[in-house]
Write a structure and sequence with these properties.
407 residues; alpha/beta; six-stranded mixed beta sheet; 33% helix; globular
Length: 407
């Protein structure tokens, strides 16, 4: 789950702004206060870096001696048989510094990476091959292929292990880095090699612009099946539109498909949860330093699906903001969860933007369901467990949806 924060000064104002207090003073008092304020301003300005952490509630940052890092660079530059790209040296030093936190969800992004991240978050993936990938059993695998896109047309199957792109071994890369390798300009080609049942299989794929709307609906009689693929800035509005559309059609049962939804904005999760929850807490986040403690409440008077029979479909790729919605609906007894245990990402990340275009994605807190449970590394167990194999996915057999339709 990622909630974009304001820039540094705005963040301080957001958390610490106090109501203005009207005061009446005489001329003498004004002059004295002005003189004191002038002197105080000079003193504060000279020592702001030391004083600011205490005023903002943040702990003072202990200085680190980076001279040894510079020594390493000097020796590298003196002895390396080649040319060093200084920009890349600095970028990788920043990356290494952030990686020292040892948290999978805290990392540094260059300006280019930050731009791509923003596009991913809002579903603007550009051109690709139409595969959803994720970590499974120690490998990055195809979790599903999207309809009417290159990978499915070529015969790529769910369960295939990603091995190579254009004959380059990419199997050890992260999910995000592999995704980048598969993207490119529309009309360009990529040779994708996968491992299936111990054998290599290669496919020549032509990238196409991917239609990647975050919410869409289907209907089975009086049952609405609303699929939410991510939580972006439009998700709340789209989900409400689809919910109202289903109400207008006279639907009396709602299946919310969150399978494969890796999360997104907390605000979008709140908007979706507000379709069922009226004014109550949706999620609470807590940080060790107290700076990011916050309770998020559902909107009032907007729970148009309250009291409607609701089933939420989940699997191992249902994560973060998706788990916020699933957890809140389960805690309040407003929905039945069917499928598989969710991923288990119970932490909150903030995005810190830099003027250079770089970005720091940093874990700032843990989040808790309305009943006070943190699901980090544990996930949420469904009320009714129904598994779906890769073979069933490839044959368009969906026992989880079937169970929800019969429920």
């Amino acid at each position: 789950m990622t909630e974009k924060t304001a820039k540094k000064n705005e963040t301080r104002e957001l958390y610490y702004q106090s109501p203005a207090v009207e005061r009446k003073v005489n001329l003498t008092t004004t002059v004295i206060v002005g003189a004191v304020a002038l002197f105080g301003g000079i003193l504060l300005g000279a020592n702001w870096e030391k004083i600011d952490p205490y005023l903002s509630g943040r702990k003072p940052t202990e200085a680190i001696d980076f001279s040894s890092l510079n020594t390493v660079y000097e020796k590298l530059a003196e002895n390396y048989d080649g040319t060093l790209d200084k920009t890349k040296v600095i970028e990788e030093a920043k990356r290494g510094l952030v990686n020292a936190a040892g948290d999978d969800y805290t990392y540094y992004l260059t300006a280019t990476e930050a731009e791509e991240f923003e596009k991913d978050l809002n579903g603007d993936v550009g051109a690709g091959v139409g595969v959803e990938i994720g970590q499974r059993d120690g490998y990055v695998k195809v979790l599903r292929t999207t309809p009417d896109n290159p990978a499915r047309k070529a015969g790529v199957l769910a369960g295939d292990i990603i091995y190579k792109a254009d004959d380059e071994d990419i199997s050890a890369l992260s999910v995000e880095d592999i995704a980048k390798k598969l993207r490119g300009a529309s009309g360009t080609k990529v040779k994708l090699t996968v491992v299936r049942n111990g054998e290599e299989k290669s496919f020549e794929l032509t990238r196409e612009t991917i239609n990647n709307v975050s919410v869409y609906a289907d209907y089975k009689g009086k049952t609405a099946i609303i699929t939410i693929s991510r939580f972006d800035q439009d998700t709340g509005r789209l989900a409400r539109e689809k919910a109202q559309e289903a109400i207008n059609k006279g639907c009396d049962k709602y299946i919310i498909d969150l399978r494969g939804n890796g999360g997104g904005y907390v605000s979008a999760a709140k908007e979706v949860a507000s379709l069922w929850i009226d004014g109550k807490i949706v999620v609470e986040q807590k940080s060790s330093n107290g700076l990011y403690n916050e309770k998020t409440y559902a909107n009032r008077g907007q729970a148009i699906l309250a009291g409607k029979k609701t089933i939420v479909l989940t699997n191992g790729s249902t994560a973060s903001a998706s788990e916020i919605v699933a957890g809140a609906l389960k805690d309040y007894g407003l929905a039945t969860l069917i499928g598989e245990k969710t991923f288990g990402k119970g932490s909150v990340q903030a995005l810190e933007d830099f003027l250079s275009g770089e970005m720091l994605r940093v874990t700032v807190a843990k989040w808790y369901t309305p009943n006070g449970k943190n699901i980090n590394h544990e996930g949420i167990e469904p009320d009714k467990k129904v598994e779906r194999s890769f073979e069933q996915i490839n044959k368009d057999i969906d026992p989880q949806l079937d169970a929800a339709l019969k429920y």
